[in-house]
Write a structure and sequence with these properties.
Elements: H1 16-21, H2 30-38, E1 46-48, H3 54-57, H4 60-65, E2 69-71, H5 76-79, H6 82-91, E3 100-101, H7 112-121, E4 126-132, H8 135-144, H9 153-162, H10 171-174, H11 177-189, H12 215-221, H13 226-238, E5 241-250, E6 257-264, E7 277-283, E8 290-294, H14 299-317
Parallel strand pairs: 1-2, 2-3
Antiparallel strand pairs: 4-5, 4-7, 5-6, 7-8
Helix pairs in contact: 8-9
Length: about 325
């Protein structure tokens, strides 16, 4: 780790080590790093956490207590232990700051959390939030379960893996836990006491393949279960429906869930293409759902979500650019 307040421009990048660091390199120490940032007096200062680390997420309260803003796509602080989530909420509740922005935790750059926050803050009642939150599972079922589709499920998974849509081990997508974390975040922002430990999650990994030792063995054996998935698909299509893997936040009856569900062919979820996400908010003001749709994963759109949050902080609390001392 190295800390530096030296001004630099893009033209300096060829010699950035000598320009910025000099002899100031230190052993990595996040507490010292936060202390240094907290001492900067030029406008708002934010830490951007682009890890998926529980340990880093646990530091958010200490950063907020130092007056530092937090911007992150890391889901762990908002879908893990409820006490951590509540502490972060409390420390970031003042309109004077500091604050936490985590738009990219659900839907990457899509305006999902900002829309939900606006609905909640203006007093609307959330009836339900329903969506396809996984780009991987969106791609799989958009291609596998559609009128006229002929690909076997295992082939769809193989193509998705080859194209980089899945995790290195596709079971990490098919077990539904990524969707469960996003449903938990939405539920908590909506004011519900919800957690991944109590949320019903349908794991669509065949039970006998859940404990195989490698992703390669899983992929080799997955065709054994093509008929199982084909039967589910046939039954859906015979009923005029398609299969979609969805997350559901129940704002009224506490029946939130993550599951494989059927949707009629005229439903917006049935016409989704590619690996897009789609989220539908049903509220008192929007009995016909307010729908957000678009790319919900990928480096560019995630970076867009993070950068948008940074701009919000600069606009709310000042960037320091107009300060002659900065």
């Amino acid at each position: 780790m190295a800390l530096s307040n030296t001004a630099f421009t893009a033209a300096d990048l060829a010699g950035w080590q000598s320009t910025l660091l000099g002899d100031s390199a230190q052993a990595a120490d996040l507490s010292r790093f936060a202390d240094t940032l907290a001492g900067i007096e030029c406008g708002a200062t934010a830490i951007v956490d682009c890890t998926s680390s529980d340990a880093i997420a646990a530091l958010y309260p200490s950063w907020l207590a130092r007056g530092l803003h937090v911007v992150t796509p890391n889901k762990k602080a908002f879908s893990g232990d409820m006490s951590l989530f509540r502490e972060i909420q409390k420390l970031s509740s003042s309109p004077l700051g500091p604050t936490v922005y985590h738009e990219a935790t659900v839907g990457a750059g899509l305006p999902v959390l900002s829309t939900l926050n606006d609905l909640v803050r203006t007093g609307d009642r959330i009836v339900k939030i329903e969506g396809i939150f996984s780009g991987t599972l969106s791609y799989l079922f958009n291609n596998f379960s559609a009128p006229g589709a002929t690909q076997k499920f295992s082939d769809c998974v193989a193509v998705a893996k080859e194209n980089g849509y899945t995790e290195p081990d596709p079971r990490d997508d098919l077990n539904g836990m990524d969707v469960a974390r996003k449903v938990t975040i939405l539920g908590r922002v909506a004011g519900l006491e919800i957690g991944t430990d109590t949320l019903p999650v349908e794991n669509i990994v065949p039970e006998s393949l859940r404990d195989v030792s490698t992703a390669e063995e899983f992929m080799v054996r997955l065709p054994e279960f093509d008929e199982h998935f084909s039967q589910l698909n046939r039954e859906a299509l015979q009923a005029g429906s398609v299969l979609r893997y969805v997350g559901f936040v129940d704002g009224l009856n506490g029946q939130s869930s993550v599951k494989l569900a059927r949707y009629s062919l005229d439903h917006p979820f049935a016409s989704l293409k590619g690996s897009d996400n789609i989220i539908a908010f049903t509220t008192d003001r929007f009995p016909n759902p307010l729908i957000i749709q678009g790319a919900g994963a990928g480096a560019a759109v995630t970076a867009f979500g993070i950068f948008s949050d940074l701009i919000k902080i600069a606009e709310r609390f000042g960037s320091g650019l107009a300060d002659s001392k900065c």
